[in-house]
Amino acid sequence: MPNSRPSVMLVESDPQIRQLNELILGEAGFRAAELPLNADPVDFAARTRPSVVLVDAGPTAPEGWRVVDRLRADPRTAAIPVVVIAMSKDAAIAARAAPNVPVSVVAPYDIDALDLAIASAIGKPPPAAILPALTQPPPAAVDRAGDVLSEQSRAIILRVLQDLRVRDVYRERFAELSPSLIDELPTIIGAMIDGMRRNLSPTVIVGTSRVAQALRDHCILRRGQGIELPVVIDEYQTIQHQMLATLRGWADREQVTGADAIAVADRLDALFDEVTVVSITDYLAAPSPTPARNQPRTPPTPG
40-61, pLDDT tens digit by residue? Predict the structure, then answer.
């Protein structure tokens, strides 16, 4: 009889921590799939198809970040959710910038925290798992551009955050405004990139239920925070700028032809045009922020 428990592949270089995690996972009802010695984690994940990959990305395991990015970039594993073990809250937030990392945990953690993180990750599959399947291959240049953007997606989102935080609107309110960027943008950007790789139209990509919901939630939150529509649009323009900057570096390294570069840029323009149109509609349909009520003045005390 096949084992019905969700499997969790462990990527952990420290044998003591790996053994501890195996015990925690067993107690929580999961089945640990240990990575064999010297095995490539991406190839092993592609062969075994775990429910979740658990990656240690702490200071003693710097290769963990590379594993996260490679799992995201490889079409065989892009649909597998990843839970990152981080050593600080900042590192945990940075991990969630990857579209394939819906949840991260901060060490030290207990059974309940890891159980909740893995269960949550299973319920929030990456963008590659929610989009329609490839039916017709994209042009070679678009396909290659999608590969480059996919591998760099976490870095792109982190650069977007750095770019936005120095702007006037965000400078004083970054702690309030940044969680929405981490909660919604990886899904949106990941879906755009994966949709390019699958040759899907902008309408299909943006109309996918989870992507449409992420755009809607972002607009509702921003309007509720009193953020004007042009600022919301500027967030997406900043993402497009960072994606194009990444692709310019790729085009220079690989000597991409002018025609291919234009084809890729046109594909991105069409995607962001669709995102902009949908965001404008969602923003205008969102409830207006409730103005603060004027507090009655306290009458002066008779003297």
Answer: 999 999 999 999 999 988 766 6
Residues in the chain: 303
| Full residue range of the structural domain in which residue 32 is found | 8-122
Contact 239, 201 (CB under 8 A): no
Interacting residues of 82 by C-beta distance below 8 A, sequence separation 6+: 52, 53, 54, 55, 68, 71, 72, 98, 100, 101, 121
Distances (CA, A) of 238 to 14, 23, 231: 39, 44, 10
For residues 8 and 18, what is the distance between their CA atoms, to the nearest angstrom?
12
Of 58, 92, 122, the residue at which a domain comes to its end is: 122
Q: What is the pTM of this model?
A: 0.88
Interval 212-227: pLDDT, tens: 999 999 999 999 999 9
**Strand 31-34 relative to strand 7-11: parallel, antiparallel, unpaired?**
parallel
Q: Which two tokens stand for residue 65?
A: 């970040």
